[in-house]
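Hello Y.,

Per our agreement to keep a running log of every chain we model this quarter, I'm adding this entry. I've kept the format consistent with earlier entries: sequence first, then predicted structure.
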Amino acid sequence: MPTPRPLTCPCGHAWAYDGPGEPPADVRSVCPQCNPVEAANANTRVAPSNPSPSDVERESTAFALSTDLTPGRVLNGFEILGEINRGGMGVVLKARQQGLDRIVALKVISPTRLGNPDALRRFKQEVRAAAVVNHPNVVNVYHTDLDGPLPFLAMEFVDGIDLSRLVKQTGPLAPADVVFYLQQAATGLQHVYEAGLVHRDIKPANLMVTPNPAAGKGRKTSKLPKLKILDMGLARTVAEAGVKEDDGLTRDGIFLGTPDYVAPEQAEDSRKADIRADIYSLGAATYYVLTGEVPFPGSTIVQKLRRQMTEPPPSAQAKRPEVGAGLDLLVRRMMARNPDERFQTPAELLDAIDRVRRGGTPDPGAPTPPPAHVAGPPPGTGSGLYALSTGTAPAKAHAGAVSALLVGGDGKTVITGGLDGHIKVWNALKLKEARAFEGDVGPVEGLASAPNGRWLASCATRLTLPEMRVQIWDTATGAEHGRLKGARDNYRCVAVSADGRRVAAGSADSSVWVWEFAAEGPKPTRLAGHTGTVTAVTFSRTGETLISASTDGTVRQWDIAGEKERGSLNATVGPVAAMALLGKRLAVAGRHLAVRQRDGSFLRFIGHDGPVLCAAISPDGRLLASGGTDATIRIWLVEDGTELTTLTGHQGGVRSVSFGVDAGVLYSGGEDGTLRRWPVEAPLR
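Predicted structure for the entry above:
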C-alpha cells in the first residue's frame, strides 16, 4: 500500500495523498476540496487498464462531478451554496467567493466542451474580452479557471427572474414595461458592440430582471427593475469547440443561437453574425414578451427556420392592439430579414426607441402613427413605467412664460402663474381654462397651495417696495385675501407647510421669511445666512424645519422655532435655480442637476444640454422630472440617475414641472407660454 504523501493545492488546501503512482501535475484534480468526487476515486482505485472513456462517458462524468458539488464544498476558493440551474453546458451554482466574501454565480463547464486546445485558447480570449464589458446592463465576469479539472466562470450573481419565466408567470408584459426593458437591453448591447463582441444568443431567457417584479406584488420598493444580459463571452467560442455548426441547433439550441430567436444569416452561417444579428434576436425576444408567443412557431426547427426565411416579420399589434403602431413598427424593423434593413447599431436602435416613446415612429421623418395605448388602467393608476403617447394637446396658457405651476390636491385642476401677470385654473385632464384670478397679480415667480386646496400663496416681481408681498388667494373664487410682508426686495419663491399653518418665501435680498398664522395675525420670522438670491424653499413633513436654496450655491436647513440655521451643503450645481424635496430625497437644479445620496454626497444626473431650470420628484419618490434651457423635459430614476425618457415639444426653455397626485402624469410649463400634460405611468412594483 503506498505511503501517504502530503500535498497542498494552489487554493491552499492540504491533505495526504495515498493514490497509486505519482500525483498529477495539477493536484487540484485530486484535492478533496477542489474536486471531492475525483479525489475520492484517486485514493481508492488502481491505475486504469481500459482505454480512455468516450466523449459521452466523459460528459456523464462531468455531470456527476457537477452533481456532487453540494453546499459546503469549496471549488478553488468558492464555497458552494446551492444549485441555480443545469443544462447541456454544465451546471450553474450559487457560491460565495471566500477571499472577497461576495456572492457569485459559478458556471461549471463540462470538460468535453473545451477539449480542443485551440478552442480552449479562443475561449480564454473571448472570456477576457467579455470581462472588459463592465456595464450595469451586462452580467460581469469576475474570475475564470479554465485549466483545472472542472473549468468554470465566476460571474455576477443576479437575484431576479429572466423574461422568459416572467412571461410564463404573469403573461405578456405591458407595452410600457417592455419598452423599459428594451431600452436597457439595447444600452447593454451597445457596450457589447463597442467592445467588439457579438452575443449571438439574445433571447428572453438570457435577459434577467432584478429585482423580480412579479415577486413584489403588494409590496412597495424604491428600486425599479434593472435588466442584465446573461451569458456574455460564451456563444462564439463554445460553439466552435468541436461541435459541428449544423449540429449545434439540434443538440443544444444555445451556443449558435436559439431557433426561435436566431437571425436568418446566423442560422445559415454563424460566422456571418454581427451586432445586427443580436438586434434581430432582441426584436424576436421583444415580440415574445409582448405577445407570449415566438415569432415563427413550428413543430420542428426546420419548420421554424423555413417560416423565418420566407415570411415577413409578424405584427405584435395584430396579436395585441394595445401594443400600438410605433412599437409594432420598431419590432418589425429589428426583425427585418435583410440585415441592411435593420437598425445598424444598438445606438441607432436607442434613438428609435426614444422616438417611439414620444409617440412617433422608429424612423425620423416618417408619418406619426396613431397614439399608442398602454395596456392596463388609465395613466396614473397603471402598472407600467411610462406611457408611449405624447399625451394631451398643449394649451396656450400665458402670453409670457409659464413660470410656476401646481396641481390641485384632488388632481383635477392645474394652476399656472405666468410672467404676463395672470394666475389661471385649468381642467387637468383636458387642459381647458376654468377661470382666472382677479386683481393685481404681477409677473408670477412662485405658487404654493394649502393642503386642503382652498387657498394658495403667490409671489411676483414688483417695482416698488410696498408692492413686494406674498399674496394669499381664495382658490375657488380667485379673489385676493391678504398679503404678507417682510423682505426688502422681491420674493422669488414660496411654500406652504403640510398643516397649512405656515408660509415661507425666499427673497432677492438673500433672506428667508416664515409667517405663522395666529389669531392675532401672521407672525413673521426672518432667517439670515444666504449670500445670494433665495430661489427655492420647502418645508419638511412636520413643518418645523425649512430647507432653502440660493444662487450662492448652497442648500440650508433651518430650525424655524429656534430661528437658527442647522446646517448647509454645497449643492455642487453652481447657482441653484430650483429644488425638489420629498422625504429624504433632495434634488437641486442649476448649471447641472444633482440628487443628494444617503452618504450626503450629490450624484450628478447627466443629460441636459445647458442649465436646468426646474425639478420635481414623483409622489412615490421613484422618478425625478427636470426641465432645462434645452427645451427638454427629462425623466430619471431618482435612485441611480438612469434617464428613462426625454420629452420634447416646448419651443424654448422649460420653466416649471409638476407631477400629478401620483406618478401617472406630469405637467410642464415653458417659456413659449404653453402648458403640457405628459402621461408617465406609475413605476413597476
